[in-house]
Amino acid sequence: MPVIKAKKAILFIIMLFACLGFALESSNEVKYVSDGDTIVLDSGETIRYLGIDAPEIDREGGKSEFLAEDARDFNLSLVKHAKLSLEYDRETRDHYGRILAYVFLENGDMVNAILIRNGMAHVMSKAPNIKYRAILLDCQREAMKKRLGIWSRERKKEEKFYLGNKHSYRFHRPGCPFADKISRQNVVRFMSRYEAFWEGYSPCKGCRP
Q: Which of the following is catalytic: 56, 65, 195, 199?
């Protein structure tokens, strides 16, 4: 193959991978694990796992959420000393400047999915970054049925119903101010928290259903 054609072919492959959302660099090593869904690489970049939300660790002397430390430790056990590959979705950074990514181990397993499958996080979808929503939701339903991790705890006292937003994939208590702002065509009603999670909705950070 002539040199010029070979260079064009290589350039085409690189552009194709970029369009598909893959990071070509696959030697990212972890410097620090912040919690169940956030890591810091040796490069200093902070990576926020896409499509999931792990229990929050309170760093101000308060009480951490159920299994928050367990989720961090499980995340550490997966990525420590591992060479990671990153795959992006439509957006590559959040408003904090963190890189948004699906994180893969050398054997091809997705860390985001492993955490969900073991009940160490729940699905948190945010358009337009929903490339693997269906896969992550399948993993969550598997963990819910087996009552693993966060799904092993006794459920909170239920409201009579919850209101979900088809656009944001969030669900709210009926009295939540954010619920009042959902347009009629986007409202969906759930009779339990379990049903909302089963459909891949995540709880509002305000009313904390």
A: 56
Q: Quote helix, strand, coil % in the chain, to nearest 5.
A: 35, 25, 45
Let me know if 93 is a catalytic residue: no
Show the tokens assigned to 167.
Answer: 């656009």
112 touches 102 (CB < 8 A)? yes
Active site residue 48: yes
Catalytic residue list contains 170? no
Residue tagged active-site, from 45, 93, 98, 195: 98
CA dihedral 143, 128, 38, 176 (to 10 degrees): -70
**Domain segments of the chain: what residues?**
22-151, 155-203
CATH topology of domain 22-151: OB fold (Dihydrolipoamide Acetyltransferase, E2P) (2.40.50)
pLDDT in tens, the chain (209 residues): 454 454 444 444 434 444 444 444 455 789 999 999 999 999 999 999 999 999 999 888 788 999 999 999 999 999 998 999 999 999 999 999 999 999 999 999 999 999 999 999 999 999 999 999 999 999 999 999 999 999 998 777 889 999 999 999 999 999 999 999 999 999 999 999 999 999 999 999 999 99
